[in-house]
Specification:
3-stranded antiparallel β-sheet; 331 residues; 8 strands; globular; alpha+beta; Cytochrome-c3 Hydrogenase, chain B
């Protein structure tokens, strides 16, 4: 939720865009999101446990109504404080100039980032990937600049070439790659691959700069709020919450792949089962795509974005724009 207030924290004095009161308001609105999620999962970001064959709760009409109430509170905050426009109108924006005609914190942030030349720095490979979800609507795709193509999951791999797992490593993070190349994942990737008009226009003007990356994260919030409301309004409470599989687990020998789009990017799970027992389990977390470890000849996504910066403040800001998660990275 409103990461923009966290991104512009007080540690980057030269590019601070917000005062303490605004940051506190954003923190409070985050709690409303957590309350809505807790209705269905018990906690955030991961539920207390998983349920094979379904979900972990049996929601009622009251639960859905309460979740929609929390969602309305968050939507109102975003419209009044961030976008300076209704969600519906904001989603019609197709040029970055339209942002400057609003009076929200997004407009203020764009103004500050441009004045500090963050529309020119933080550029990486300008190639993106989303692994999508396990359905036909959200399939795996990749993008080189503005050209979008299908992605084949068999080309997803990971590397330990520069990790502490091997000799002479310098980080605990592994690298996630596609066809042995670094690809950026996350909001900017999803928005570019979805051909969002606003982010496409920003990209046309500024490529994969910090400005484009930050605005993509905030613009995606509008899509998520609208989509979440539609999903809640269309839940069929008559459907069973769980269908227990009628199988003898000891007879299962298979390889399974699960993937979905998480906040920071694509999440990948691969499990190999032999006679009902897990033989091998592998996870590629969203952060690993952007934070991986390269070398001088081929730096990772975040490393490439940092090359050539002349101050620590700029480097800190560029790095934080990727919204990396150290906990997930060292899993």
């Amino acid at each position: 939720m409103p990461e923009i207030f966290h991104l512009n924290g007080e540690d980057e004095q030269s590019i601070k865009a917000f005062e303490g009161k605004e940051w506190i308001k954003a923190q409070k609105i985050c709690n409303e999101v957590l309350k809505a999620m807790a209705i269905f999962t018990g906690q955030w970001p991961h539920g207390s446990f998983c349920m094979v064959g379904g979900v972990t709760c049996d929601p009622t009409k009251g639960d859905v109504f309460e979740a929609l109430r929390y969602l309305d509170i968050v939507t109102k905050f975003c419209e009044e404080e961030i976008f300076g426009e209704t969600i519906e109108n904001f989603l019609k924006f197709d040029t970055s100039i339209q942002i400057m005609g609003t009076k929200g914190t997004l407009q203020k942030t764009v103004e500050v980032l441009v004045s500090e030349k963050f529309d020119q720095i933080g550029k990486s490979y300008d190639r993106f990937i989303t692994l999508g979800n396990n359905n036909q609507k959200h399939s795996a795709k990749k993008s080189q600049g503005t050209s979008v193509m299908n992605a084949n999951l068999k080309f997803v791999s990971e590397s330990l070439a520069h990790s502490f797992f091997v000799e002479n490593g310098y980080t605990y993070s592994k690298s996630a790659m596609y066809k042995n190349r670094y690809m950026e994942s996350g909001p900017i990737a999803r928005m570019m691959i979805a051909k969002d008009p606003l982010i496409r226009d920003l990209h046309r003007r500024n490529k994969d700069s910090v400005l484009t990356r930050v605005v993509a994260k905030i613009a995606e919030i509008a899509h998520l709020l609208q989509d979440s409301k539609k999903l809640l309004q269309n839940i069929d409470l008559n459907e069973p919450s769980c269908n227990f599989p009628q199988v003898n687990t000891k007879e299962i020998s298979a390889i399974g792949i699960g993937r979905c789009e998480a906040a920071r990017g694509s999440l990948w799970h691969r499990v190999e089962i032999q006679n009902g027992l897990i033989k091998h389990y592998d996870i590629i977390t969203p952060t690993v795509w952007n934070l991986g470890n390269g070398d001088k000849n081929e730096p990772s996504v975040a490393q490439k974005a940092l090359i050539g910066l002349d101050t620590v403040d700029k480097a800190n800001f560029v790095f934080k724009a990727f919204d990396v998660c150290a906990v997930c990275t060292t899993q």
